[in-house]
Design goal:
alpha+beta; 6-stranded mixed sheet; 135 residues; 6 strands
């Protein structure tokens, strides 16, 4: 997983602290894709969505993103936010829309990604999650 994140030029900062909320796409003993979630109260940060170069364009990134949206929704999170320097065109197709840093929930400021792990030039995208009714 670490090699895939490095190859995708994604930050490893904060990965260990949130490892339980990462998913891997694996074929045999090879990691083909990864995505992670950081939780901050009712808000989530989608991070480290990466697909190995030789498996891109096959829907794996979309599947990983949808899996994380489902997990965040199931966990009762209200929003999901991400920062990207390379995929600003990909995530709006998944329902995310651009926002400014000052529009982010204050709870997200605890993320290492917002504290410098991701460059200030990164595009910030946001998604309001559907709220499930209590059973």
């Amino acid at each position: 997983m670490e090699a895939l994140l490095i190859a995708a030029e994604l930050s490893l900062e904060g990965v260990q602290a949130h490892l339980a909320d990462f998913v891997l796409a694996v074929q045999g003993d090879e990691v083909l894709g990864v995505a992670g979630l950081e939780r901050y109260g009712p808000h989530g940060l989608l991070r480290s969505v990466a697909v190995r170069a030789d498996h891109q364009g096959r829907g794996l990134g979309q599947a990983l993103t949808w899996e994380m949206i489902e997990r965040a929704t199931a966990a009762g999170l209200e929003t999901l936010t991400l920062l990207t320097t390379t995929a600003a065109g990909f995530f709006p197709k998944q329902g995310f829309h651009p926002v400014t840093r000052d529009a982010l929930p204050a709870a997200l400021q605890a993320s290492s990604q917002l504290q410098g792990g991701c460059p200030a030039s990164a595009v910030i995208l946001h998604l309001a999650l559907p709220q499930r009714s209590p059973a």
